[in-house]
């Protein structure tokens, strides 16, 4: 759509790249409920259906990023189901591993690789470079970025990309929103080391998950956008010392422009629609609010 009207008469700002950022899908073994309560496959299907409808309505997605805890226990069939459900939604799907994933199976099932250690993934698109880190520790729930892995990142970022870069990892490099997540957080030293590695580079944004809650913050001078889980939502306003979650899913829609980006949280809870204005109705609203020309 290029005939959008603006109050200042300048051309409408249109994204050069649209990314659907999903996280913490927690697919389980077939027939098993996540946390014995939530059908994680059904929750993923709701998110995927929203994206498919968007494409059908003329809002296609260029890239899907899924930032870890793709499965709950590393079940190979869960990886297969995840790939099968998301394939076709976007030309490019990018996977990051989380603490609930099994690194060896993640590598085998989604990357077609056999390395035992962290793998630095680099996807170079004309509009953007996307670099994926592995913040997991085998057998642990909290996160760490190994010095050698960060050295790989530093070497990759040494040469700027024409469209700038985005870094993806599972453990959000921000203060955690709940008591349990405080224990399962990215180690503070890794957070500081990542901030130092990104300082002065072309990195425009960090995408992360793990918190089961959409949020944003800053890592040094670099913005961080955290996607919520497609399955559940952490309640940061639970009583002190308590961990409370809700059966509520979401993902983030990240739009990149030539000179910036926006991040929108897209709930997938089936909320009731209030209105749907067609172009003529939207034009009538605009016509009822003329711009006040001054001077």
Care to describe what's here?
Residues 18-212 form the Calcineurin-like phosphoesterase domain. InterPro entries: Calcineurin-like_PHP, CNP_phosphodiesterase-III, Metallo-depent_PP-like. Belongs to the cyclic nucleotide phosphodiesterase class-III family. This is Phosphodiesterase. One of its GO terms (molecular function) is metal ion binding. The chain has a single domain, classed as Purple Acid Phosphatase, chain A, domain 2, CATH 3.60.21.10. The chain contains seven helices and 13 strands. A six-stranded mixed beta sheet has the order 4-5-6-7-9-8. The chain has a five-stranded mixed beta sheet with strand order 3-2-1-12-13, with no helix packed on it. With 295 residues, the chain is of the alpha/beta class. The model has no long low-confidence stretch (mean pLDDT 95). The chain has helices at residues 40-56, 76-86, 103-111, 147-157, 179-183, 188-198, 279-287, and strands at residues 17-22, 63-67, 92-96, 121-124, 129-132, 165-171, 203-209, 215-219, 222-226, 233-234, 245-246, 250-257, 260-267. Strand 8 and strand 9 form a beta hairpin.
Secondary-structure blueprint:
Layout: E1 17-22, H1 40-56, E2 63-67, H2 76-86, E3 92-96, H3 103-111, E4 121-124, E5 129-132, H4 147-157, E6 165-171, H5 179-183, H6 188-198, E7 203-209, E8 215-219, E9 222-226, E10 233-234, E11 245-246, E12 250-257, E13 260-267, H7 279-287
Parallel strand pairs: 1-2, 2-3, 5-6, 6-7, 7-9
Antiparallel strand pairs: 1-12, 4-5, 8-9, 10-11, 12-13
Helix pairs in contact: 1-2, 2-3, 4-6
